[in-house]
Every structure is written in C-alpha cells, then in structure tokens.
Amino acid sequence: VSDTNVIMTNMSIQDSAGYLPSPTLEEFDHTLNSQKSFAALKWWDIYTERGASGSKKNFEREVMVRPSVRHIKGVNAKQDGLIVSVNAAQYAVLVTDIPRDTLEVESARKSHSRNNSKENRYSLGKDEDFDALEGIDPGDDICGRVFKQIFPDSFKHVVPIYNFSEVTRLLLQWDRAAQRLEIYEALFELKGVRPTMKTGFLGLWGERVDAITHFKDVIEELDSDIKRARKRAKFSSERKASFVLFDNQIDAAVAAQSVLLPLDGTKFVTHRAPGPDNINWLTLFKSNKEKFLRRLLVLPIILIIMLLPAGFFSSAMAVVDSLFCTASTPVYWPWYCESQSAFQKLLKRLVTGWLPSLLVTLWQNVIVTRAFYMVSLVECVAFSLSGVDKRITSLYFYWDFFNIFLGSVLGAALFTMIGQAVSLDNVREIMEALGKGIVSSSTFLTNYVMLRALFLVPFKLFFPHPGLLGYVLRNALSVTFTGVGITRRQRFQAWEPKSFMYGREAGTSLLMTLIGVAYCSTSPITVAIVAIYFLGIFVVIRHHLLYVYARNYESGGELWPILFDRFVVMLVSLSYFAACQMITKQAWPQALVLFVTTPVICWKFWSICNKRYREVSENVPLDIGWRQPKAAVPPQMYIPSELRSQSVGWHPEQGKAWSGYGLPRWL
Fold first, then answer.
1. Greatest mean pLDDT among 140-144, 218-222, 663-667
2. Number of C-beta neighbours around residue 129 at 10 A
3. What are phi and psi of 85, to 5 degrees?
4. Could you report the per-residue pLDDT of 169-209, keeping only the tens digit for each?
5. Distances (CA, A) of 190 to 87, 571, 648
C-alpha cells in the first residue's frame, strides 16, 4: 500500500495541528507521556528513524515499536572495572508449589531445628517498597522469610506470580476494538461520512449506531475493566509460584539445586529460573492437580494424532498401484498401466508420486503442527517457552517415528502380504513378503523427501511464512475494498516478522534424518535426496534466521540434548532395520550380532555423554558462578507487562513460543 493510501487516525499519533505523516522519535516520547490515562500503551505507534552517518545518512524509515528479547534478557554489572552484560536468569530462582499454610511450614521447620526458640536467626526488618511496585517482597510471604534466613547477604527480592490471564483476555479485546476504531476513523477521513454499524453478531442485526462513537465507548469501558482486572490479579489470585532474585550467581545456583525445607518433595520446589523473555506463564498459574488433569485430558488427543495412519494409507497407495499393474492380480487395470495417453501418465504420476506426499505434508503442516502446539500448552509441563518447543520436538519425533516411518513400512508390508496371501504357506515366504513391503515403502518416503527438497525448500525461500501471502492478499483486496489496508497498523501487521517454529522445524529435520539413516543400506537414492534437502534447508534457514524471523526468546541451546537423545534412538533403529533386512536375505548370524551388540553400544555411548555433559549444561557449576560479578536484577524484569502500569511493553504476540501465526497464548 502506498503512503497516499494510508490514513493516520485519532488512535494513531497526532498533535494539535492535525495529522502527522510519521512523527520523530522525540515526538514519539511525547506521545507516550500523553497516554498516561490509558490502561495500555498503543504498541502500534510508528516513528521515523533517521540515519546519522555513513551510507544511511539522511535515510529515513518507519519503525513500529515492538519489544525485543535483547532488552529484557540481561543486566549490566561491573567486573575488573569494566561494564559487562550478564544473564538475568542466572541470578534468579523459580519456586513452585508454594504451600499456603504457613503454620504447617513453620511447624515443620521448627521440628527439624537445633532449638525451638521463637526467635529467628536473622531479623527480617520492615518491608521495603521497591520502585513503588505493589506486590514486590510481600511481608507475609514464606519465600521471603526462608530465603532471607538461609541467604541473608545475597537475597534481594521475591516477585510473586499472579494469575493475570483475565487481564490478557481484556487487553486482546481492547486491542481488537482499537483496531476497529482506527479503521472507521480512517474511512471517515477518506470519505467524509461518519460510518455506522449494527451492534449485533457480526454486524448482521441489532441497533444501528455511529461506529466511531460506539468503539470509543467500548474502549473506554475496557480501559476500566483492565484496571479492575489488574487489581484483582494482584490482590485476589492465589500465589502458587514466585521468582526469587539474588545479587550473585553462586547462591542462586545453590538455591536452584537444593532442597530448602523439610517438606515432602511436592512442596516448595526450586528450579533454575527461565529468562524474563522465556517464561511460559500459563504453567506457573496451575497447581499440580490441575496439571495432572490437563495431561490426562490431552492424552487421547495425542494418541489419536499418533495412531491416525497418515503414512499407512499413503504408502499403501504405492502398493495398490503395483497391484493395478500386475496381470496376475484380480484388480489388474490395463488402461491405467498400459495406456500411453498424456492424461494416463499424468494421473499415474500424481497418484503414485506427488499426491500421497503432498497430502501428508499438508496434514503435517496444517493439522499436526497446530495440534502439537496446543497440546504442549494445555499440558502445562514446561515453565519456559523453550520448554514448549522441546515438548513439541519430542511429540513430533514420536509422530515421525510411529506414524510416518513405521506406518509407511508396516503399511506397505501389510498390503503386500494381503495381496499375496493366497501363496503364503510358511514363515520364510512371510519374511520375504515382509522384506518386499519394507523395500517398497522407500518409494513413498523418497517421494516425500523429494517434494520437500525440490519444492518446499525453494518455496520457503520466497515465502518464509504465511504472513507474506496475507500481505499480498491484503494489498490485492485493498484495491477493491476501501477498509482493507487503509491504516498504517494494518500494513505493518501484515509485514511484521514472525518467529521461527523451532519445534516444528526440528521435528521435520529429525524425520528427514530418520529416513536417510533407515534407508542408507537399501535405497541410496533416498539418502542422496535427503542430503540435497539438508543442503538447501541449511541455506534457507540460515538466511531467514538472520534477516526474516524475529526471536521470541533465547534458551542458550537447551534444544540440543533433546536432539541428541533422538539421534541415539535413530542409530538403534538403523541397526534393527538393517538386521531385519539381513533376515530377509537369510543372513541370520549377522542380524543376530546387530540385534545384540548395537543397542548396548549406543546405550553406553548415550550414558557416557549424559554423565559428562548434560548435568553441566543444565545447571551452572558453582565454580563458574563464584567467578561471575554481582548484579542488581530489577524485580520489574520478572513482572509481566499485563501487571505493569499502563501494561508497558505489552504486545498481542508476546509470551508465545510461536508468534505471528494466529496461535493462542492461553488454553
């Protein structure tokens, strides 16, 4: 959309003189001060950024404000006279399952103490009000008393976690109403006629009112609702977890790796805290009972997705094609196999080659991906967004292995045995039929990899995410429909960067690796196509991570241990797969050697790597923590935007593992 078609409205930045095409950064700061009465700041405001020197001197571009993980991840500290940046998460501890019955806790603590004196080891003093933020360091909180006594010199703050899901829901309603108001104001500016609307469902019925006045009233009402919901979240919700902040890393590491209270293992559990940009808040709102019920409810969904035979039927189509073209079978189809017409050739290639692979790819990208994302949210297993991606990766691998891979192999073998059931009279012939079915499944899997390597990888280079297609569609519709693409906000939302789907892409890469490993001894052409896929996807993903996708969080490489475990499983699968092939060729001794020795060797290798590297990578070694500088982590870093004054820093896509794809934050 050209600048002449974009309308600045009252919901956008303006001054007393009228509408501004694009304010400067100084004017933008002035606008923020003018929004103090809002329940939330307008995240979609735009300012002009000018280059100061070099090739970009006097170059101007429009910038939309969006929170960056770089600004909420680290803090500055001094070491050897130099200012260094440190990770705020290394100075924080997450405490979950905090018992609300403080009398029970104090009784348990006294029964294990060296004396039963009512006096504490250290005086807690008076509660201090830090930065006038309500809820920080509550005086009646058991976390503050425990950590103040155990770590009197390094303990700094307790940041209680409140359930603010109602605030988020109201903010999203406020955001949608503000967008509708912008559009109607833009239409009024463009046509000079005040637009009207019906207040009923989808504007189909109800009282006809002035649209601008209606949405101004809605926004004003939502402003009040948001402020009341924010108070309810702070003062009414039960606190099930808290963040505890220290001024050094060694005490934070000790607290995260220790049992602090003489309670059962389900209460007052300490964890290494995720970074402020990497928190999955929904999990922190739920109790153990709620988490168990959620996992129980989603288990049938997981089983249905895992067992629904996407690869089974796709592989069976290759066998059906073979049966159609075998003269000895009762389903022999001469025209389908012997005709030389162009339509017959096209139909045969579509049915046997591209159609099965295309259907599986669509099923995987549209249904399975979204289902696994929502399941990972509902389960409430992960405390961090990176943990959500790790859970998605695990689910994807199970689906890859049992549904696509085993479904294809067993499906082809089963259909082969059914087609030849009349002639099977001993175990040897059954094993030979099974071997033929396993080999025949390579056709489907090779076509599947070829579709991704030769079509989807180049397509991803030009269309990295669905938002680009939405942008093109929005521009096309704006020619006919005046309400589409009329505001700056609509234009920037259509083009704004999306996040990288680590869970899905890692799961897809594991599937490609599994196919290449499984068929390396029986189908070299499949391995070659897998190699082509990885060469192409490496270039595309590397480019997109640098220039296209926006980071939602930084986990510090936490995904690698999950990938390593799956690689070991694939090595064991390779040995079993090769052994099965040897059995079909009557190589029983060699198959037995692979069956017995390879799993033991792989398990030993996995065990040694775990002992050497996993514990060190998951927890900060105390010797390294002791060498790090002291730092003052502001408690505001661990307060969600929804609970801050005016929801400072709030964005409708924040707090999601995958942003920009229309996926929900709460489930």
1. 218-222
2. 10
3. -100, 130
4. 999 999 999 888 888 888 888 888 888 888 877 777 778 88
5. 49, 64, 32
